[in-house]
Amino acid sequence: MDTQLALLVVQESFGEPSRVVVECLLKRPRMSLTALLETTKLPYSQLRECLLSLISQNIVYFISPTDNPSHPNAEIEYSADKMHILMRPRFPRFSLYVRERYGENAQMVFDEFLKRGQCTRQEAISQVKEYDRALSGGLKTPNEEACYEQQLREEFERIVSDRFIIQLDEVLNARNKDAKRVPQPKVRPRRGPKRARRTNSPPPTVIDDDNGDTSAEEDGEPDDDLLAQFQAINDMPVPQAAPEPAPTQTTTTSTAAAAGGAKPHAQQKKGPPALEALAGRGGGAL
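RE: above sequence
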């Protein structure tokens, strides 16, 4: 949101080419002139004019290779100050405050610095004198003009003492210090999958009683009912293995006499004694 507002302010104040340049510098904080030519697709002469205008208005500043001893052969890099752009819509309020506090002459000097961005004291005072001469029609005498110039100088000193206007060297030094503080990206070490936390306490014991209720005992003394069940299981007699049954004898009977010479059947096994007794009681063959 702030970036879009800053681009809108630049476009209204300086035009579309300047907006393209500032947009590139806000996306990449540091760009050389070669990189700007490739990214913006603007002619060299037009890009140069945009940079000069934006630098004079303190919107764009440059970092010379001498400020970076580790890369002495590097190109001059440019960067944009988004906070200064967002301050521009508040310039009328600043001007009104200076007028209420210091007077009309101080406001005229202060407005000249707001318009130019960067200028010397003599340039600002000379321009204000030109405005006053145009308003008065050139009717002031040389002594009056000299007194008026002295008043402008005094107002200028008051504004500077209260730091409404500061020297350009202070701004450049502060920006160069901030430019040297390039934060290094933090690389987090890779971590493997989380392992189960080891504890000295035994796992919970789950008891399933006859009613189907399940209860868990974490730590502490075991239940008396559980000990009684274990004791009952230990006291139970061990069952003896049953003796192996004796092998049954197989006999071959011939029913040729009863069937009148019929073919004998296959060998039949005798069934258990209980079935044989039942068959004898019935008085017939099964």
